[in-house]
Amino acid sequence: MNMEEYKDLIQVPLGRVHADKVINNARIINTYTGKVQSGLKVAIKGSRIAYVGTSDSMVGEETEVIDATGMFLAPGYIDPHGHTDFGANPITLVNEILPRGTTAIMTDTKSLTAALGVTGIQALLDMTEQLPLKFFYAVTAANPIFPHLEGEESLSMEEYTRFINHPRVLAVGELVSWVRAIDLDETVLSKLNLARRLNKRIEGHGAGCSPETLNALINVGITSCHESITPEEIQHRINLGIHAMLRHGSIRSDLEALSRVITMDPELDTRWMMLTPDCFSPGDILTHGYMVFLVEEAIRCGVPPVKAIQMATINPAQYLGIDRVVGGIGPSRYADILFLEHPSLPAPVKVMVNGEIVAENGKLIQHSQLNCPRFHPGNWRSGRVPSFKAAVTEHFLVKAVAADGEYEQVPVIKIVNRTITKLDYVKLPVKSGELIINDEDILKISMLHINRDRFATAFMKGYGASIGGLATSTAHDHHTPFVIGNNEDDMALAFNRMMEIGGGLVLVDGGQIKGECPMVIGGIMSNRDMGSLNRELKVIEQYLMERGCKSGPLITLDFLAHTGVPFIRITPSGLYDVRSKEILFS
Ligand SMILES: [Fe+2]
Source organism's superkingdom (predicted)? Predict the structure, then answer.
């Protein structure tokens, strides 16, 4: 806000300067008190709310009067913990979710940082600077989780310091590598301590933590956790004085269970609770909207509507320290206002952002133009780019120890569900000195080696689909490219095509490309609109489902390299047991 706007804002309530707009006859969902108020006017000057009260003194001839008879006004919805730095780009995201009421997101940047380094964060800051949806960011203090196995730290202390001081950076991104913090890794603790001194939030990731570990992590500095899967875990986090997020998105959707913490105890103070999807796939965004879906689901689960709205507005705003500008309908706040038919119907009829009506009946009045930067493999962080020109069949052969005709037992990733894996063993025959796949349920999994000159290859089972080659550069958390499949020629073709199109996903079967989804922004983000992106992903997903994958084959793929979740993962150094901290096969 410049000085003129600042002065005008002060003068409007006093009747010395006329408002640009006044909303009359609405009922206001007061997120500060949890009550609904009638008989108040909301006066707007520029992008801000200047006045809430009963006076007409700020209405002049040039003031636009908006009659909101029968409507309820709520502040725009805020996601306190997004992961919108991969998949859909922020511009298409705005076009899809703003008309359905999400007006602010605090999102992690660890993925685009792992993909592109500081260029990634800067690209996000630049892309979202002028967008109507307010983007705030978190920067990573510890990624990858195991640098000695997975590649160098995404951000140096100098780089981290530069970004943690940025005014739109509100937090340190989720501390998946909390083990590094409680094992007193000096690099990580120095970064977190700087965030503490700057009073930035630190996003926790206390999945399955014991009470003792959780206490230690709060001493580390975490201010929230979004990994609760039971009402008791929500209660425990609040008891210890950190904010608890009730997660409901594409990876996990736990509102049904988590909301019982509120419905079983109506007296419970809900100010320390927030709603977040954590992550939504493009398909789920198109189907469900974004935060509106969580508010609807919370209400369906029995959370009183105004409390559900508070958990998506003022609670995240206060948690993030941005309640002076968003989260409620009060003077000085941005005029980000939703017009609802009723508090129990959270889908807005109209959406106002920065004092302008930007959407009606779920449709945007003016779309933001897609103009995304491209970051092809030449721009990627070096650990993600092979030093060889192209993958060849021989890259994916696995030398046997046993003699030809014998069998060799090898450890494998056994897929349990979308995110969890466990250790299993299979016996594979040896032919021409190589281990051969002899079962439709077994696939090879080959990740670009930490030295970049070859692949670290292991085996997996339980994926469901028996396919030639599926290459990806999108998988969490360090986004090192890998390929799964049972045919080395197809694996090589899939990998090479994936690199050729600038990263993303390529599915090859029987020597033919069956589907591809380019992610030309660092190999992890599409520059296309949400509908096109979703269609490209669906072609691949459908092929995999028709060949036996159960649910979420691409989410499952994305988690095969995520060493932040149990138990067996592929890393650039080989097959890894995250619990015993051992490389099992390489
Ligand atoms: Fe998260």
Answer: Bacteria
CA count, 13 A, side-chain hemisphere, 220: 32
Strands 455-461 vs 407-415: parallel, antiparallel or unpaired = parallel
The CA 68 to ligand 1 mean position distance, Å, reads 37
Identity of residue 130: Q
Output the CA angle 469-396-145, nearest 5 degrees: 85
What is the 472 CA–ligand 1 centroid distance (Å)? 21
Cα 148 to ligand 1 centre (Å): 23
Beta pairing, strands 77-82 & 72-75: unpaired
Backbone angles phi, psi at 252, to 5 degrees: -140, 145
| Successive 10-residue mean pLDDT values, the chain, 586 residues | 96 98 97 97 98 96 97 98 97 97 98 96 95 97 94 95 98 95 96 98 93 97 97 97 97 96 96 97 97 98 98 98 98 98 98 98 91 95 96 98 96 95 98 96 98 98 97 96 98 98 98 98 98 98 96 94 94 96 95
Phi, psi (deg, nearest 5) at residue 539: -60, -45
CB 417 within 8 A of CB 565: no
Residues of the chain with CATH 3.20.20.140: 77-324
Question: Reduced to 3 states, what is the DSSP secondary structure of residue 84?
Answer: coil
Q: How many A from CA of 108 to the centre of ligand 1?
A: 8
| Both tokens assigned to 59 | 């209405």
Domain with CATH 2.30.40.10 in the chain: 3-70
Segments of 184-312 assigned E as strands: 201-204, 224-225, 243-247, 273-276
Q: Which residues pair with 345 in a beta bridge?
A: 342
In the CATH scheme, what is the code of domain 3-70? 2.30.40.10
| Residue spans of beta strands (DSSP E) within 436-481 | 442-448, 455-461, 469-472
How many residues would you count in the chain?
Answer: 586
CATH fold of 77-324: TIM Barrel (3.20.20)
Distance 175 CA to ligand 1 centre (A): 9
